Amino acid sequence: MGNLREQSNGESGCMYFTDKIKENGLYLLDEPENSLSPERQLELLKFLDDSARFFGCQLIIATHSPFLLSMKGAKIYDFDEETVDIKHWTELKNVRIYHDFFEEHKKEF
Q: Please, which residues have CB within 8 angstroms of residue 23's CB and are 6 or more apart in sequence?
């Protein structure tokens, strides 16, 4: 993987995923977006989506990232409710908070 000390924590994380994820694997990821910029989270989303679609990988991901939650075809279990429920990513409370924040500030863009 090269010299990880020359990369940021987020870059090192991306390198780790691209190096370790192989075909037909089952992967449990706990907040893989940690330390990643929004741009890098989108790159990770594409990589994980490609890994699932084209390389037969199964991914179980614990995340708060709206980017990762938006993965096409993902089955999302909302553990923030008293009864665990399956939801669309746009129905999740933390995603709605992002939405509302940017909606409130849209004139600033």
A: 55, 56, 57
Quick check: pTM over 0.90? no
Q: What is the rounded CA–CA span in Å between residue 79 and residue 86?
A: 9
Gap between the Cα atoms of 99 and 80, Å rounded: 18
* Alpha-carbon span 28 to 55, nearest angstrom: 16
Q: Which of these ranges, 6-10, 46-50, 81-85, 101-105, has the smallest mean pLDDT?
A: 6-10
Helix residue ranges per DSSP H, 3-108? 9-20, 38-55, 66-69, 93-104
Residue closest to 64 by CA, chosen among 37, 88, 40, 30: 30
pLDDT at 89: 97
